[in-house]
Amino acid sequence: MKLSDFRVLTFDCYGTLIDWESGIYAALQPLLEKTKQATGQTLSRDAALETFARYESAQEDATPAMIYSELLSTVHRRLAQAWNVAVEDADHARFGASVPDWPAFPDSAVALTYLKQHYQLVILSNVDRESFKGSNRRLGVEFDAIYTAQDIGSYKPNQGNFEYMLAHLADRGVAKTDILHTAQSLFHDHAPAKRFSLASAWINRRHDKPGWGATMAPPEGADYDFQFPSMAAMAEAHKAEQST
Q1: Any catalytic annotation for residue 12?
Q2: Is 158 strand, coil or helix?
Q3: Of the residues 5, 12, 144, 225, which is catalytic?
């Protein structure tokens, strides 16, 4: 199997192209500071992100039709309750609206610009349309299709998200064998991709860190066909194929 065997790259965005862990952690700083002042407790970055992951995943299961910005506000409220901190509604709303402020990984825009010359680029993301607009500006390319949780009414790893994407791409003349699903999260993306027999590339952004950060641990049997530590490495691997 080679990267050039495919003609469509379907992307998770957050964690893969956008550095959502840095974005989440920065947006949590006011709450973490209030927690420290109120309780004397200082949470490490990974501890905060892992707690976020549990609450976010549970909320996505409980309210699959909730817009992601609203879901983030709800998660922030529940984190404040869990950490025994009184927080104003405006603080919850501010966290919910933070997605457009989350930074892109430094290599994302350049890699996408290169890959756009060789593939159709498609987004399959657990986000709402308005939040994604801000992220899209950071990525510097026009995607051929964008499928969000808001469009679908559920959140990955729900199989409905992949059914929706595959059906809409089929309407565009794209076969499953044309697609390489490209993502960081084994939990949200690679495990369900395998259930649909989709080839996938793991962008292992946490290759130099322990644990799973802001995503839940993957289920047993989660697998992938390619692994790269970054989007830049994936683009370089494709270039190498073209030169042989």
Answers
A1: yes
A2: coil
A3: 12
